[in-house]
Every structure is written in C-alpha cells, then in structure tokens.
Amino acid sequence: MADAVLFEFLHTEMVAELWAHDPDPGPGVSAEPRGEEPGAATGQNMNLSVLESVGFRVGQALGERLPREMLAFREELDVLKFLCKDLWLAIFQKQMDSLRTNHQGTYVLQDNSFPLLLPMAAGLQYLEEAPKFLAFTCGLLRGALCTLGIESVVTASVAALPGCKFQVVIQNS
Amino acid sequence: MADAVLFEFLHTEMVAELWAHDPDPGPGVSAEPRGEEPGAATGQNMNLSVLESVGFRVGQALGERLPREMLAFREELDVLKFLCKDLWLAIFQKQMDSLRTNHQGTYVLQDNSFPLLLPMAAGLQYLEEAPKFLAFTCGLLRGALCTLGIESVVTASVAALPGCKFQVVIQNS
C-alpha cells in the first residue's frame, strides 16, 4: 500500500516544510542553485540548495547500493541509459521518456509526466513553482552519477506541466 | 532496487540536513517537542518539531489513501493493531514486535529493531541522538491516527538501540 507513495509524500512535505516560512518566492529562479553569489542568496535559493544537497546524498547512497558490475560501466552513455531506465523505474515506477545527447557531454533526459510534479495543479501560473519540485531530483541524478565516477552539473526545466527536462552536462576533469 | 530504501535514505538525509547547522544538541531532549514554552525552544527542539510535523502530514496523507472500509474501524484497539501490522509492514517491511495497552487509552508499541535507528551506530553514547530519528515517525503515527478519527499524543523512547517504544495516549474529546 504505502511503499510506492511514501517517498513521494515525504518529498512533497519536505518541500512544503521548507517553504512554509518563505511563502513568497520571487519569479525567475533557476532550479540550479550553484553559481549564485552568497550575498545574493534568497530564502528561495537557500531552500533549493538544501533540496539539491539532500538529493545529492540520497543519489550517492543509492549509487553505493548498486551491484558491483554496474559500477564498471565503460561508456558514459551506458550510465545515462541506466539512470533513465533502471534508476527511474526503481524510484518512480516508470522509465524516463527520452534521452538525447549532443555526443559532447551534454544529455537531455525528458519525462513527460514527472511524478513529483503531479501534486501541483496544472496551469501556466504554477510554472514558477516548479523548480522546488525538481531540485531534489537534480541532486539525486548528480549524486548517482558521482558515485558512478562521473562529475556533472544537472539542471531542470519545465515547458508544460507535468513534463520536465533534466539537462546533464558532464564535467571533464 | 531502490524503492524499499529510498524512503529511509531520504529520511536519514533530511535529519542530517536539519542538524547540519546545529551540530551540538543538548542532552536530555525528549522526542516530544510539544509543551515546550516558545521562548525555551532550542534549535534541537525546533528541528524535532519540524520532523514531527512533516511526519504528521505524511501520516495523514497515507491515512487518506486507505481503503474506505479501513476508515470504519469501530474499535480503537483495531486501529492500533492495523498500524502495528499493515501500516508498519507497508512502510518498514516488518511488523511492530509488540503492542500493549492499559485499556484506558494508552498503548505501547515496541519495535525491537526499528529501521530508522539502524543507520546509527549502536552504543550507549549515541542514545541521546535517538530522538531525532524518532520524531518523524511519532508524527506519522499521530497523523495516521488523526485521519482515522483518533486524536492522540505520541512519544518515543529508546532503551537499547536499535529497539524503541512508541507510546500513544488517546485524547478523549
């Protein structure tokens, strides 16, 4: 009964709790909290940063539980395919809808009906609320990739609710 | 792979994030944040209160997904048995180990190996850390009971890690 929805409920309430004391987010805030100057950090940005970092550590923890053979992926693309199929299925009971790449280290993962956006009412007026339901998952992807040996920057964008795109840019060291 | 552990990872990291900026909890803090005077609230108590309230809303949301016939329990004891068996199994993949009552509205639910305490190292020196891993679940029980029409006060205590007891005191209106 509860197992499949428990994670989603906890995520929803964690977001609600973070924003409970900061009810008026400014418009135009990106889901990618890094790169902001500390002095310019708003409550909204702080909250997104908290969610991203919680997501990162959960992603790392999930990555560490992978069977050893999965940690030996040779191709970057194989790792991304694994995230889109197996990881997404395990977390959200569905696969990512599409995966595209420019073959130069940038990947776009599209989910046409992202479960963590479903609690939001559909409608253009809610679009600016979307980043707070995406920050955790950006972190989760970044954390899982990190455990698999890939440093990345992950951002998210929404065109039409409840669909969204995650952009993964691999950082070559 | 991930579904069963995802909730536990997210809970662990939510606790870690809350305490990341408050690393020195005072000793002797109860898992029951209510009844404190606001002026006396420490960061520790604030965090426990946040966890309890997030747990409460998750418990409510879980309760609202129950089949309609479950919402028609006639006996208080049946509701508590349901929490100990079905709810616990759905959340933690195990049942509560024992349920006792004084038949006057007080119930003691004992879990001899509570999953959310397992990440903690065993040892007496960690006992004072335990409340932060119990507050969310106190709230969750209180929220589920609330949806089932029962007002309660839920507290938790630890005698020997990773075992714990939840005490539910029914509030007669």
Automatic annotation (TrEMBL), chains A, B:
Keyword Transcription regulation assigned: no
Primary localisation category: endoplasmic reticulum
Gene Ontology cellular-component terms listed: cis-Golgi network; endoplasmic reticulum; trans-Golgi network; TRAPP complex
Renumbered residue ranges of the record's region Disordered: 21-42
Localization (cell): Endoplasmic reticulum; Golgi apparatus, cis-Golgi network
Keyword field: Endoplasmic reticulum, ER-Golgi transport, Golgi apparatus, Phosphoprotein, Transport
InterPro entries, per the entry: NO_sig/Golgi_transp_ligand-bd (IPR024096), TRAPP_component (IPR007194), TRAPPC6/Trs33 (IPR037992)
Pfam families per UniProt: TRAPP (PF04051)
Record's subunit section: Part of the multisubunit transport protein particle (TRAPP) complex. Heterodimer with TRAPPC3. The heterodimer TRAPPC3-TRAPPC6A interacts with TRAPPC2L. Interacts with TRAPPC2L.
Function text: May play a role in vesicular transport during the biogenesis of melanosomes.
Family named by the database record: Belongs to the TRAPP small subunits family. BET3 subfamily.
PANTHER family: TRAFFICKING PROTEIN PARTICLE COMPLEX SUBUNIT 6A, TRAFFICKING PROTEIN PARTICLE COMPLEX SUBUNIT 6B
Protein name, per record: Trafficking protein particle complex subunit 6A
Naturally occurring in which organism (per UniProt): Callithrix jacchus (White-tufted-ear marmoset)
